[in-house]
Design a protein that fits this description.
Blueprint lengths: L1 H19 L7 E4 L5 E14 L2 E17 L3 H4 L6 H20 L8 H10 L2 E3 L3 E3 L2 H21 L6 H22 L4 H21 L26 H14 L6 H13 L3 H5 L6 E2 L4 E6 L2 E6 L6 H10 L8 E8 L4 E12 L2 H15 L10 H15 L2 H8 L4 H8 L6
Antiparallel strand pairs: 1-2, 2-3, 4-5, 6-7, 7-8, 9-10
């Protein structure tokens, strides 16, 4: 109880002196539980990553006073001392410094200015100038915003763009190494981040009129990781077709099965699959317009063999925004039965839904495991089979939405004989 009385006494003294000195800044004091030394507690604004977007929140901070304890604190808080006023000035200074870190949206010399400008752009430039896909814009935000927050936290001078000329490569190297060691990233994610940050720096070089160097990250020389991902083989293909036949009317699996069939027929990316909108389904022309990385492209269902899946797509098409809308699984314990029920017609099903169901199917069917057969293996299978049958790389490039046949060739690897 002595501890509570001392703390109560301290709070009363602080309250009286705050009024006397007209101190309005919010801060408080407490005792360290182990040493019983005085601790000043206060909060400063800082950036946090919320769903890939920087938001300003308050962060609790502490200052430890080893020379002040429960036995001598009263002499520090006497009327004629300036200790409380000094604490007030310290907290104001800390808040001012923190706010200065957030004020990075001023001019072309600030990191925040360029982050905002880069993420607001709608057109990109690689080998050609073209509109950015929603996927690319989202990926830029997911990589650049956390990196921006990390920079401001770890390197106080990183808000000055001129500092990046000397230290930008070193900072990004430190960042991706932390991510790899913590397990947050794998090698593939690391390369994705590298391409995004490299693109950001090159964007600054393009628009800064020669004051910022091009290819700032060149010295890192990161190489794309070799992965073991493969296309499905003939045995796995037959197993998947059997699964489709057995589960196309199953209440738990039928949405996934239709998505799987559509991916087998078209080689769509999972992100494109879940984003199909009902208004982009042209019933008269038997066409779905797909929005992807390279813009809009048509997916036709005009062959007689397409009639069955086309009818099922039209049957699935509803009054909401998305063809594959948000659902949830409901379990009935008495019947030991699971079914999928509608949740929101105007929200798309997530990529996570499809990926999770694919993994479940892969386990059930005994397909090759993680890192070898993934949902992307279906896209890879479509590309390789199409080129084998047609010998037309450029046509398959257009169908699957590749920007060049070089990417198509990368997908095929050495599985197609020249």
């Amino acid at each position: 109880m002595t501890k509570d009385k001392e703390l109560l006494s301290l709070k009363k003294i602080v309250e009286i002196q705050k009024k006397k000195n007209k101190i309005t800044q919010r801060f408080s004091f407490r005792w360290d539980n182990k040493t019983e030394k005085l601790i000043l507690s206060y909060s400063v604004p800082h950036l946090v990553n919320i769903n890939g977007t920087p938001k300003t929140r308050l962060k609790r901070k502490q200052k430890y006073y080893p020379s002040i304890n429960k036995q001598n604190y009263k002499k520090w808080f006497r009327d004629r001392t300036s200790f409380l006023v000094d604490c007030d000035n310290f907290v104001k200074g800390a808040i001012s410094n923190a706010e200065g870190m957030l004020s990075n949206y001023q001019d072309e010399f600030d990191l925040g200015f360029w982050i905002e400008k880069f993420l607001d752009r709608k057109v990109g430039k690689t080998t050609e100038i073209k509109p950015l896909s929603p996927h690319t814009i989202l990926q830029n935000k997911r990589i650049l915003n956390p990196y921006y927050i990390w920079l401001l936290d770890k390197h106080k001078n990183s808000n000055e763009m001129r500092e990046h000329i000397e230290s930008g490569a070193e900072w990004f190297e430190q960042y991706y190494q932390e991510k790899l060691l913590s397990g947050d990233w794998n090698n593939t994610t690391c390369m994705t981040a590298f391409r995004n940050v490299r693109g950001f720096y090159n964007f600054i070089a393009d628009y800064s009129k020669g004051t910022f160097p091009y290819d700032l990250l060149k010295r890192l020389q990161l190489k794309s990781p070799k992965h073991s991902r493969d296309t499905i083989n003939s045995w796995e293909y037959d197993r998947i077709i059997d699964f489709i036949i057995e589960n196309k009317d199953n209440e738990l699996w039928k949405k996934f099965v239709l998505m799987l069939r559509l991916q087998l027929k078209s080689g769509l990316r999972v992100g494109e699959l879940v984003e199909i909108r009902n208004r982009n389904i042209d019933e008269k022309d038997k066409t779905i317009w797909v929005s992807g990385k390279t813009g809009r492209r048509p997916l036709h269902f005009r062959h007689q063999d397409d009639q069955k899946i086309w009818n099922e797509i039209l049957e699935k098409k509803g009054s909401g925004i998305y063809l594959f809308y948000r659902t949830k699984v409901v379990f009935y314990p008495k019947q030991k039965h699971k079914i999928e029920v509608d949740m929101d017609l105007n929200k798309p099903t997530t990529s996570s839904f499809y990926l999770q169901r694919f993994r479940q199917m892969r386990t059930l069917l005994g397909l090759r495991g993680k890192g070898v057969i993934t949902s992307h293996s279906i896209r890879r299978y479509f590309i390789t089979q199409f080129v084998k049958e047609t010998k037309n790389r450029d046509l398959v490039r257009q169908i699957v939405g590749h920007s060049s046949t070089k990417m198509t060739d990368y997908y095929m690897g050495d599985m197609i004989d020249e």
